[in-house]
Amino acid sequence: MCGIVGYVGNKSGVPVVLEGLAALEYRGYDSAGIAVIDRDNSAVVKEVGRVEALAKAADAEKIAGPLAIGHTRWATHGVPSFNNAHPHSNAAGTIFVVHNGIIENYAELKARLQAAGYEFVSETDTEVIPHLIDYYTNQTPNFEAAIKAALGDLVGTYGLAIATVSEPDKLYAARVSSPLVIGVGKHEHILASDPTALMEYTKKVIFLEDYDL
């Protein structure tokens, strides 16, 4: 069980995501991380341990941006470590994913991607997802189509927040058997595994159903 939080809006999403992760720390505290996108620029900060350490690191690096996704991890595939902490990305660092759930066929997908030349840096099942999306971006008309193609390959459970530097004003969410809720605010949306992470900002929420994207 892990916690994910995402933000897209008209201010920096970093404080919102960090506060949301702190509220979701009961879902996992082995490691935590955040990815931030501001126009064509991106930054990722990860820490082994609790969200408090991540917040200090993010403050020290002064990251900010109107699109952010974060994760607090309960380790399943792979020990608690920097490389295994979310968010995970493609090799170019242009596609970012945080994930709650288990991808049952990740070993098969990983082998397929490695045969196509993709290199992995973690032991997690999640890392196949940004690489899969990257793989399909060369075969589909747009980023959303690439996400749909990648999701079609996954067997297992997932709550996902996905972002790319090529679309700095869009936050993608998808779920199968893993909870996700969207908070609708004024000029902003907040995504979380649990409403407790966003109730400070809005009371208007949308609960995603299985296979929603």
In brief, what are we looking at here?
The chain is of the alpha+beta class and 213 residues long.
- How many helices? The count is 5
| Share of helical residues | 10-25%
**Structural class, from helix and strand content?**
alpha+beta
Through-space gap between termini: 21 Å
Strand order across the largest sheet: 3-2-4-1-10-9-11
Q: What's the story with the biggest beta sheet?
A: 7 strands, antiparallel
Radius of gyration, CA atoms, in whole angstroms: 15 Å
**Number of separate strands:** 11
Low-confidence stretches: none
> What overall geometry do the principal axes of the alpha carbons give?
globular
Mean pLDDT score, rounded? 92
Which series of helices and strands comes N to C? Answer: EHEEHEEEHHHEEEEE
Q: DSSP strand (E) fraction?
A: 25-35%
Question: Would you write up a description of this structure?
Answer:
The chain is globular. Helix 4 (128-137) crosses helix 5. Strand 9 (181-184) and strand 10 form a beta hairpin. The chain has helices at 14-23, 51-61, 106-115, 128-137, 143-153; strands spanning 3-9, 31-38, 41-48, 67-73, 88-89, 95-100, 158-164, 172-176, 181-184, 188-192, 205-207. Helix content is 24%, strand content 29%. It is α+β, with helices and mostly antiparallel strands and 213 residues long. The mean pLDDT is 92. The strands form 2 sheets. The protein has a 7-stranded antiparallel sheet, covered by helices on one side. It has 5 helices and 11 strands, in the order βαββαβββαααβββββ.
